[in-house]
Amino acid sequence: MKLTLLTENNSLFCKFYFAEHGFSAFIEDEGKTILYDTGYSNAFILNAEKMGFDLTAIDYLILSHGHYDHTGGLKHLIDYYKSRHLTRKPVLKFTSEVLLLPKYNFEIDEDQGTDVDIQTLEQYFDIQMSEEVEKLTSRLYYLGKVARDNDFECRLPQVAKKKVGGEWVEDLVDEDTQLAFLHGDNQVSVITGCSHNGICNIMAYAKQVTKADKINTAIGGLHLQAPPKDLMQATMDFVQDEQIDTFYACHCCDFKSRIALSTVSNVEEAGVGLELIWE
What we know:
Helix content is 23%, strand content 26%. It is α/β, with parallel strands linked by helices. The protein has one domain: 4-Layer Sandwich (Metallo-beta-lactamase, Chain A). Strands 8-5-4-3-2-1-18 form a seven-stranded mixed β-sheet. It has a seven-stranded mixed β-sheet with strand order 9-10-13-14-15-16-17, with helices on one face. Strands 7-6-11-12 form a four-stranded antiparallel β-sheet, with no helix packed on it. The longest helix is centred in the last third of the chain and has 14 residues.
């Protein structure tokens, strides 16, 4: 399997790609191509073109959750498809209609939700909403609704609220989903958008689903932005106990959290243009 970062907060040194506050990854495995999230703008499209990837030929678009820095590129992808008169419909997978609910940050007076409606999406994608685990290839898993089993993650709602039944309510982003890849040596790696389920919950669930013995790598946003001390310590304890090999901590993981993780695991630089090959 090959993974390439199309959008991230930073670009790798001397790569000269567009970077933004967002996340998007292009995955190739067993003849299938998967786009995981679309970032905030059309940057992922421009980067994909420069890298030589054909976004009109993808088999799956997976959306992790309904925040604009992961779904904002949807409208640009649709425009891209329109301009190329695309007739085939890639599969669009996300866990539930919660991803499409309005999300608003009242502190900064800004809409932070998905800005494409279901009717428009149905014109261009084969929509398959599911909370169940599914194999996209023989070793690449769509995790669906991830179990939130530990007692230290997913305790604080997001600043942005979601609108349910006409009322703005607290949001724990419970539509969040990730991907997992089972290596030939019975280790599993996880690919995350923002890790709203909690990166430790995600890794534990990936082991459970794939029956892997060990976590190899985690790449993506870890949702560790100025985390409370007890949350950071519990995360570090989990990582140390599990002896996780490598983190490519990016997007929503701040500098101090990366430094802290580097004391218990190998933290590598991530950025647009990063390529990982897993066997």
